[in-house]
Design a protein that fits this description.
Strand content: under 5%
CATH architecture: Orthogonal Bundle
Shape: globular
CATH class: Mainly Alpha
Oligomer: single chain
CATH superfamily: lambda repressor-like DNA-binding domains
Number of domains: 1
Distance between the termini: 13 Å
Order of helices and strands: HHHHH
Number of strands: 0
Largest sheet: none
Length: about 60
């Protein structure tokens, strides 16, 4: 979901990481659900950048 939205925005993982203030490898972990530690503020920022519902991002990260 996050990777697809990032592709739609024509952003690299590195570029998205710069917007969020995290590394490219952390973006990779988010996209592959290998991390569950994402702050509410980062979820909200990610939702604005990728134009996604923040609740859907939360559910994705939580594996729901």
């Amino acid at each position: 979901m996050i990777q697809k939205a990032r592709f739609n925005k024509k952003l690299t993982q590195k570029e998205l990481g710069l917007y969020l203030g995290v590394s490219q490898s952390y973006i990779s972990k988010i996209e592959t659900r290998k991390t569950k530690s994402l702050s509410v503020s980062k979820i909200l920022t990610l939702s604005l950048i990728l134009e996604l519902d923040p609740v859907e991002i939360f559910k994705f990260i939580a594996g729901l």
